[in-house]
Amino acid sequence: MLKHEHFNGQFITLPDAFKLKLNNISAIVADWDGVFNDGTKSAEKGSGFGEPDSLGLNMFRFAYWLETQTILPIAIITGELNESARMLATREKFDALYFGTKDKQTALQHFCNAHQLHTANTAVFFDDVIDVSMLKDAGLRFLVNRPGPKAFEEYIVKNHLADYITSTFGGQNAVREIAELLLVMNGNFERVIDERTRYSDAFKTYMDKRNQVKPIIYKWDDGRYTEQ
Question: Which of these, 3, 13, 63, 142, has the minimum number of CB atoms within 10 Å of its CB?
Answer without folding.
Answer: 3
